[in-house]
Amino acid sequence: MNKYILPVSVLGTVVGCGVLLKDHVTGGSCPSKDKIKGKTVVITGANTGIGKETARELAKRGGRIIMGCRDMEKCEAATREIRGETLNSQVYARHIDLASIKSIREFANWVNQEEERVDILINNAGVMRCPHWKTEDGFEMQFGVNHLGHFLLTNLLLEKLKSSAPSRIITLSSLAHIVGEIDFDDLNWEKKKYNTKMAYCQSKLANVLFTRELARRLQGTGVTANSLHPGVVATELGRHTGMHQSSLSSSVLGPLFYMLVKSPKQGAHPSVYLAVAKELEEATGRYYDVLQEKEPAPLALDDSAALRLWDVSAALVGLKPAEMAPPPKEEGVSVATPTAQTQAQLPVTPLPEKV
């Protein structure tokens, strides 16, 4: 047996170093051990990937978890799995389709009527680089689901979040926002040739801008709003990209891909950190690259674009003034409340016809 000791030791050392290196390269683990017993968490897209692992970890920490998903069969299976593993019976599956205004309103109405509180809202669900699909209401799918769906849901749950303060809103964006542009003249890609990559980047830039304006409007309410890039994570989100479908790319890029790309469990750490860390209780309007606060792209710091996006988004989803966070009454946060002249310059895009 002695002749096997050295090879096994070397193999163990290599594997151990590989695990440590991957942990370092992918950003590390959530540094907070804080519990959330007694708190209610709403997570969209929680039946798989980052959302599922976030739900699992927050259930371990004692939270009451509402898993909002489109595919109820997968969601109910995930709920049973998490309940069994964490021994937390307060994990529930509820239907929401972020590509449907009707479904979003139904889900929000249920939460507002049935749940006593909402302490944490995690806007996790998303679609990436899909074909030129449209939502039920006629929006380009990536902009519709990634931004408009969460924009509407967040506003509809704001009163519940305010009454549960201190509470937190966390929206998953992406590093891809740095090359995104908001084309206010053609948000739904109806005038120009569809570019699935740039449509995704536009939706992720919208996430950061929305969070910035939301935080401005929520100053003094006890509700915080932050966005994050979870890192590059191996999830079903990339199913439309065609990565590693050839044997050549799998064999050549496989080891590198493993070292640089996170597992869904690792990808959940940033969401968990922003949801539970006591030191972040008052942090708001910030952007996090994995576990570190970073400055987003210059376009994501444009307060006038953030305000314009808010107004256009509200018009698109038919959000009434009484249903959304109002602009602050006093200045000194980010940008001024628009004047009548400024408001007149903001385009109000009509709601597209259903397809």
TrEMBL record:
Keywords: Lipid metabolism, NADP, Oxidoreductase. Pfam families: adh_short. PROSITE patterns: PROKAR_LIPOPROTEIN. Residues 323-355 are annotated as: Disordered. Residues 336-346 have a biased composition (Polar residues). Its EC number is 1.1.1.300. It comes from the Eukaryota. GO terms for molecular function: all-trans-retinol dehydrogenase (NADP+) activity. This is NADP-retinol dehydrogenase. It comes from Albula goreensis. The lineage of its organism: Eukaryota, Metazoa, Chordata, Craniata, Vertebrata.
